[in-house]
Amino acid sequence: MIFTSFLSLLAIVNVAIADPIRMPLIRKHPRRDGEINLDGIRNIVDEDRMAAQADFVRAKWGFQTLAAKKSKRATVGIPVVNQKQDASYLGQVSIGTPPQNFLVVLDTGSSDLWVASASCSSCDPQTPAFDTSKSSTIKQVTTSSGQAASVTIHYGSGSVAGLVATDTVSMGGFTNTVQGMLVATQLTTGLLDGEAAGILGLAFESLASTQAVPFWQALLNAGQLTNPEFGFWLTREIDNRFAPDNAFGGEFTLGGTNSSLYTGELEFLDVLTTTQPTFWLLEMTSVTVNGKSVTIPTGNSAISAIDTGTTLIGGPSAGVRAIYAAIPGSQALTGQMQGFYAFPCSTDVELTISYGGKSWPINSLDMNLGTVGSGLCLGGIFDLNLGSSVTAGGGNPSWVVGDTFLKNVYSVYRANPPSIGFAQLSAVAGGSG
């Protein structure tokens, strides 16, 4: 030990008294960005290289890089398809590598993304299908025992079952390369219609049957969204008997709002939640019919899911009954239409709903779904306790407020704090504003 230490000491002393070592630096590129060349002309700067160097220094010393800032895209307006006179509203997603494009129902009343697969045994042959064999990026999700993960998702109008996978999913220029989704192999008849290939759930992660982070939340978590919100403007075609099956349906604004589509201030209301949000829930506080207040249930019976994926408005028996009792000549229907009401077609039903702030009117056109008998027209609000109802985890709301209401407002869904905003439609969006 002493011998080794002595040699080490000699080496240190020798280095200390040695002459300085001079090493020439070689310049690999004699003329670089901005340097004056032999002709006296300054070279053009390589902007990409300089920007990359600056970002390297920013990252090294803990500053936010310019590339990270640019990854947050500006608010994107995505065109919406109005399917079959306001029956549902669709947006396009791209799935897989290379991408396969599909129209899916934009649904704030659920949280899972799913699409019909080419191997779906019970799907309509006309339903567009995702061919998993053509995607190089799809990955099967397995359970702890190594088995392929499968799940069944229940909706009010049916159910879908299949295998859980991850793949690249894009929408409006936003991309998640590991988006969890259900590849559907079994489907209840009538759950999809026309060009729709599946559903894009836009509620919260805790509601997802696949246990996958919803697409919009994944974008938010990755810092891709400028603002933690998205908005909807939904068009009205219910009064247009010449409307095509797939008409222009408005705009899905991802990462913010489109101020040209509404007028005045957005009224934001806090989402009802105990531990973590599930549905987009608000408490319905008042309803008027033709200017007169209607007594509706309170407390838990007033909890309302704001749901773009539902065509109409469903509510508790007492509340729905009270609404139609305020419409002269209305009557409850029976048989397969049990839970629905009809009223004289000559009556314009002017209805408003409030969630603790402003009262928002519903156009009489949206309350009239068409004739169902001699001089009678079907109402746009039905009894949720009879027939189909919401059956997903997280508890059943008493009201499911769908497009009958949402066509009349610009609606915004904000993640932080969890809240929903409503505003009057502008003249651009067909409103009186």
TrEMBL record:
Keywords, alphabetical: Aspartyl protease, Hydrolase, Protease, Signal
InterPro entries per the UniProt record, alphabetical: Aspartic_peptidase_A1, Aspartic_peptidase_AS, Pepsin-like_dom, PEPTIDASE_A1, Peptidase_aspartic_dom_sf
GO MF entries: aspartic-type endopeptidase activity
Active site, UniProt feature: D107, D307
CDD domains the record matches: pepsin_like
Domain Peptidase A1: 89-423
Family label: Belongs to the peptidase A1 family.
Protein name (Swiss-Prot/TrEMBL): Peptidase A1 domain-containing protein
Organism field: Meripilus lineatus
Lineage, top ranks: Eukaryota, Fungi, Dikarya, Basidiomycota, Agaricomycotina
